[in-house]
Recover the amino acids of this structure.
């Protein structure tokens, strides 16, 4: 399944280039592009650390200890949330509305309308036919006269051009007519025509940004009326759309002042970018876009059965569209795309270990640049630990925003657990285990160290065991939550494993304290990290059926076909730890082929431990490819 046909006009196929995204609500007469840009959020940075938290946290602990849960919860509602309670969240960048028509008004007897998304190219194509008043060279349709025009519309979000493009063409010359304008229910500060072929709007009530669209045509006439651009009688036309945010502007990020100069900067930046894109030849731009998108698409391929195949491919498409270059920011739970109807919590970046989405940071190995975001989280996390808990280390709560704000949001059940840093530690460790990049691990080691330092100082000893108090369970403040302790134990495991890899001294007083904490949580200390690989483009069901791996003490442990998929299928290029890739074919419960290959020109792990049907086999890669079939009994 590489193409999705959208028969329901209310369905919203999406395109994205990592930075820009659009959802398409389409019909024969209208297209509505719901626009997003990854750095358009609802508010500038505000210091939200609550200074009374450190004064009242011991009082809350004592109330819980004495069984006064009601009083503890009331005090926590005011003491353990940020000020203000709410943080910024991801918002829509508005919409571009396109109304189509003909020389004489509406389309006559249109039929054969079809809208589909090609997952391999990242292009949404809409086609239909309509009656022509004159001779036509178009394909035949079911129209009464037999003379018709075929219309084609293509929507893409190009990474090489760094814009969104909508191309409109007709099989008969001089048949393309439309008008387009911007709309934004949240409000605009300006909305006007820049020139005869370009329209623009700005919004400054949050992070200032600019939306801009320009039109190029072959033949016909293009002009503006007010803030609307109009095309009449063109052979074909292309609308280029860009959104630029002041979040990218150093002066704004430093001063957080939405001055007129900041607004003009976003306009100038968008105009420059859109002019460069419009100067290209559309077929060449389309070809470059397809080549770029397919480069990422073909890195991993699968042929599965039924829902597994659909889930695999649509998740792969959305992951690539949300996270490939020019993306620079992690995505909220809603991905790159959102509109005004979605819940605000879903439009924040979730770092909760309980989150199904796990911030997307778990996929750092495939994302181009998170350095600035990590630095912001680290910097703000240190301040939150000091200001709210009066301890050293890094404290990051479950939901963060584009600024890396680490203070808790206003809902106890969602916001107050300071466990978000653990998920980032897992991401750092997973990146290392996937790529064996020792320089990366060394550079980020202090994040792991200070995460554990925070827990070492904030945990409380009770009956010879350490607990995180107060904790949250079922939306209420409780004295301790065993799930939280499991998360903290994971952070300690990661730190010890990383320290050993970096030849750090793990016999200091601090590491001895961590051993004591780890052992008090229920298990003896071990360097074992039984963590399954995180790969957003593979659903949990698919990964568990085909192959799972982990890295432990220099060995890649592979669990082959824990659950054999039904029917026949194959997968190629599934990422494993240690710079390895997995490929396999199967048919009716029987493995036809299975091998691992090393990523070219990388340092890869050679020690392999394979588990299949409960039995373990050990081997070593002597080259850059290993057939797993040679290890398994011939009877399979």
């Amino acid at each position: 399944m590489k193409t999705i046909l959208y028969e329901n006009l209310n369905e919203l196929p999406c395109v994205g280039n990592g930075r820009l995204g659009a959802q398409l609500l389409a019909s024969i007469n209208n297209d509505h592009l719901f626009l997003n840009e990854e750095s358009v959020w609802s508010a500038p940075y505000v210091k939200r650390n609550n200074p009374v938290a450190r004064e009242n946290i011991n009082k809350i602990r004592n109330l819980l200890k004495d069984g006064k849960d009601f009083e503890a919860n009331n005090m926590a509602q005011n003491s353990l949330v940020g000020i203000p309670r709410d943080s910024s969240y991801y918002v829509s960048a508005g919409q571009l509305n396109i109304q189509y028509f003909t020389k004489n008004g509406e389309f006559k007897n249109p039929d054969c309308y079809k809208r589909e998304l090609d997952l391999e190219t990242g292009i949404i194509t809409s086609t239909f036919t309509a009656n022509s008043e004159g001779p036509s060279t178009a394909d035949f349709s079911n129209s009464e006269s037999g003379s018709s025009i075929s219309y084609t519309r293509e929507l893409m979000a190009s990474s090489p051009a760094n814009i969104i493009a909508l191309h409109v063409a007709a099989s008969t010359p001089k048949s393309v007519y439309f008008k387009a304008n911007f709309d934004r229910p949240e409000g605009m500060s300006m909305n006007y025509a820049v020139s005869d072929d370009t329209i623009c709007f700005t919004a400054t009530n949050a992070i200032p940004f600019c939306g801009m669209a320009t039109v190029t045509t072959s033949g016909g006439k293009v002009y503006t009326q007010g803030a609307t651009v109009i095309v009449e009688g063109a052979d074909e036309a292309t609308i280029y759309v860009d959104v630029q945010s002041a979040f990218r502007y150093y002066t704004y990020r430093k001063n957080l002042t939405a001055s007129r100069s900041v607004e003009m900067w976003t306009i100038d930046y968008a105009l420059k970018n859109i002019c460069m894109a419009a100067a290209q030849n559309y077929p060449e731009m389309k070809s470059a876009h397809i080549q770029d998108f397919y480069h990422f698409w073909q890195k991993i391929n699968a042929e599965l059965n039924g829902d597994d195949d659909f889930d695999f491919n649509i998740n792969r498409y959305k992951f690539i569209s949300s996270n490939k270059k020019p993306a620079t920011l992690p995505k909220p739970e809603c991905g790159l795309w959102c509109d005004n109807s979605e819940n605000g919590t879903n439009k924040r970046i979730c770092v909760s270990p309980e989150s199904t989405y796990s911030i997307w940071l778990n996929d750092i190995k495939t994302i181009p640049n998170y350095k600035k975001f990590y630095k912001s989280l680290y910097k703000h996390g240190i301040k939150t630990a000091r200001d709210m808990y009066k301890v050293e280390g890094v404290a990051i709560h479950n939901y963060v925003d584009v600024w890396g704000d680490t203070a808790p949001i206003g809902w106890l059940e969602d916001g107050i657990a300071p466990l978000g840093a653990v998920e980032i530690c897992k991401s750092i460790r997973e990146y290392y285990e996937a790529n064996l990049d020792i320089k990366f691990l060394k550079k980020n080691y202090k994040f792991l160290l200070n995460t554990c330092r925070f827990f070492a100082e904030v945990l409380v000893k009770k009956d010879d065991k350490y607990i995180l108090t107060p904790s949250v369970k079922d939306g209420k403040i409780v004295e301790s939550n065993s799930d939280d302790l499991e998360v903290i134990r994971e952070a300690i495991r990661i730190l010890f494993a990383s320290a050993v890899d970096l030849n750090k001294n793990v016999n200091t007083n601090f590491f001895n304290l961590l051993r004591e904490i780890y052992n008090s949580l229920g298990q003896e200390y071990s360097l074992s990290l039984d963590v399954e690989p995180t790969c957003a483009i593979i659903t949990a069901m698919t990964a568990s059926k085909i192959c799972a791996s982990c890295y432990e003490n220099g060995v890649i442990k592979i669990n082959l076909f824990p659950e054999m998929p039904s029917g026949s299928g194959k997968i190629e290029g599934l990422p494993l730890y240690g710079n390895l890739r997995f490929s396999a074919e199967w048919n009716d419960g029987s493995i036809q082929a299975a091998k691992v290959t090393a990523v070219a020109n990388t340092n890869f792990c050679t020690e392999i431990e394979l588990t299949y049907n409960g039995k373990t086999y050990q081997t070593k890669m002597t080259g850059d490819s290993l057939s797993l079939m040679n290890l398994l009994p011939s009877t399979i």
Summary: The first helix runs from residue 53 to 65.
